[in-house]
C-alpha cells in the first residue's frame, strides 16, 4: 500500500531534523553543565547538517502536490503530522530532559531519539512506492551514522 511519496517522507525528515535541532537548542538552556551543553550544541548542529542534506536530496525528487484549498495547505498538514506524532514532541521530551544529570544521560537520551527515528523511517518505508525505497534508505543511513557517532561518544564518557 502506497500512501506517501519519497518527497513526502523527505519533508517529514526535514521537519524531524528541524524539530530535533530546535529541541537540542532548547535543551542547552535547561542545563548548567558545560559538558552537557556542548553535547547538545553538537547534536543541534548535526540535526541542522542532516536537514541540509535532506533538502539537497529533496530538491532532486519528483514532487506531486494534492489540490489545496489554500496556498500552503499540504505543507501545513505535513508539519502538523510530524509535530504532533513523532520523535521530538516537545511537551513529552521536556519531562525526560529534566531528568538528565550528566553527559552520559544526555547521550543516552540522544541515542534513544536516533533509534526512534530509525524505527520510524523503517516503518514508513512500507507506505511509499518501492521505487522510492532507496531515498528512504538514505535517510535511515544518515540516522544510523548519527547513532554510531553517539554510541562511540558514549564509550568515551565516564560511567
Task: Characterise this structure.
- The chain has 159 residues and is mainly α.
- Helix content is 74%, strand content 0%.
- It has helices at residues 6-29, 34-59, 73-85, 90-97, 103-124, 133-156.
- Helix 1 runs antiparallel to helix 2 (34-59) and helix 1 (6-29) packs parallel to helix 6 (133-156).
- The N and C termini lie far apart (46 Å).
- The mean pLDDT is 78.
Separation, N- and C-terminal Cα atoms: 46 Å
Strand content: under 5%
Which structural category do the helix and sheet elements fall into? mainly alpha
What is the average of the pLDDT values? 78
Q: Give the helix level as a range of percent.
A: over 70%
Major beta sheet, specifics?
A: none
Radius of gyration: 16 Å
Per DSSP E runs of 2 or more residues, the count of β-strands stands at: 0
**SS element count, helices:** 6
Question: Which runs of at least 5 residues are low in confidence (pLDDT < 50)?
Answer: none
Order of helices and strands: HHHHHH
Q: What global shape is seen?
A: globular
Q: Secondary structure elements and their pairing?
A:
Layout: H1 6-29, H2 34-59, H3 73-85, H4 90-97, H5 103-124, H6 133-156
Helix pairs in contact: 1-2, 1-3, 1-6, 2-5, 2-6, 5-6
What would a concise description of this structure say?
By secondary structure, this protein is an all-alpha fold. Helix content is 74%, strand content 0%. Helix 1 crosses helix 3 (73-85) and helix 5 packs antiparallel against helix 6 (133-156).
Amino acid at each position: 500500500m502506497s500512501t506517501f511519496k519519497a518527497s513526502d517522507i523527505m519533508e517529514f525528515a526535514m521537519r524531524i531534523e528541524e524539530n530535533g535541532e530546535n529541541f537540542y537548542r532548547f535543551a542547552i538552556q535547561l542545563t548548567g553543565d558545560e559538558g552537557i551543553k556542548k553535547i547538545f550544541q553538537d547534536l543541534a548542529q548535526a540535526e541542522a547538517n542532516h536537514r541540509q542534506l535532506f533538502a539537497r536530496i529533496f530538491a532532486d525528487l519528483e514532487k506531486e502536490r494534492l489540490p489545496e484549498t489554500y496556498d500552503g495547505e499540504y505543507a501545513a498538514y505535513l508539519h502538523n503530522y510530524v509535530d504532533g506524532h513523532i520523535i521530538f514532541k516537545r511537551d513529552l521530551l521536556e519531562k525526560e530532559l529534566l531528568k538528565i544529570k550528566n553527559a552520559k544521560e544526555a547521550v543516552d537520551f540522544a541515542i534513544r531519539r536516533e533509534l526512534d527515528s530509525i524505527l520510524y523511517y523503517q516503518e514508513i518505508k512500507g507506505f511509499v512506492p518501492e521505487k522510492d525505497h532507496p531515498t528512504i534508505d538514505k535517510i535511515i543511513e544518515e540516522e544510523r551514522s548519527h547513532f554510531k557517532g553517539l554510541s562511540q561518544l558514549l564509550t568515551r564518557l565516564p560511567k
